[in-house]
C-alpha cells in the first residue's frame, strides 16, 4: 500500500511539473527590425514596415477613404482597402538599418524627446527581434540622431510604396496626371525622400511598356527603373 501511494505521489508530481513547464518562445531565424507609424488625417494614416536582415520584408498599410475629404480621413471607419505587399531592400540599406538598431541596444532605450510642446508628427515605434535579443521604443519625435535617421529612412521607403499604389491607380484612371506625378516622384528621389524604387518596378515597367502614354512619362519611368537597378 505504501509503495502504491509513493508511486502515485511521484506520478502526480511529474504531471505537475509537466503542466507548469513554460512553452518555448519562438525565435526568428532571421533578425527583424520593424517600424510602425500612425497619424490620423493623412492619406496613409497607418503603416508597418518589417525588414529582415536578408533584405526581405513586408509593407502593410491602411489607406484613407478614396473620397479624400478631411472629414472622411479623420473617421476610423472611413478607411480604404488594406495594403499588404512583400518588399525587398538593398543590402546597403539593410546593413544601415541593422547596424543602427544594434548600436541603439536593439531599441532598449528611451528614444522619445523630453522637450515640451512638440507638434504631433505621428505615433512611431521601432522594434527589434532576433536570437540576439529584442526591444522596442515609442516616440512622436526623437532627439537621438540615429533614431531620426532610421525614421527618415523608413518613411522614405513607405513613401515609395504608396507612390507605387498611386501610379498604378493613375495609370488606369488618370493618365493625364501621370506626368506631374512622375515629376514629383523624381524630385523626391533626388532629395532622398523616396528610397528602394525596386519595390515599385512592376508599376514603372507597366508605364514604360504602354505605348498609349506620353513619351515623356515613359522616359521618366524608364529613368527611375534604371536608378532602381543601379541601387540593387
Given the C-alpha coordinates, what overall shape results? globular
- How are the strands of the biggest sheet laid out side by side? 4-3-2-1-5-6
Query: Total domains, how many?
Result: 1
Helix content: 40-55%
- Alpha-carbon distance between the termini? 76 Å
Largest pleated sheet:
6 strands, antiparallel
* Unreliable segments of 5+ consecutive residues: 1-25, 67-77
Number of strands: 6
What does this 3D model show about the protein?
- With 232 residues, this protein is of the alpha+beta class.
- The protein has a six-stranded antiparallel β-sheet with strand order 4-3-2-1-5-6, with helices on one face.
- The chain has seven helices and six strands.
- It has one domain.
From the structure above, extract its key features.
6 strands, disordered N terminus, alpha+beta, 44% helix, globular
Question: Short description, anyone?
Answer:
With 232 residues, this protein is an alpha+beta fold. 44% of the residues lie in helices and 21% in strands. The protein has one domain (32-230).
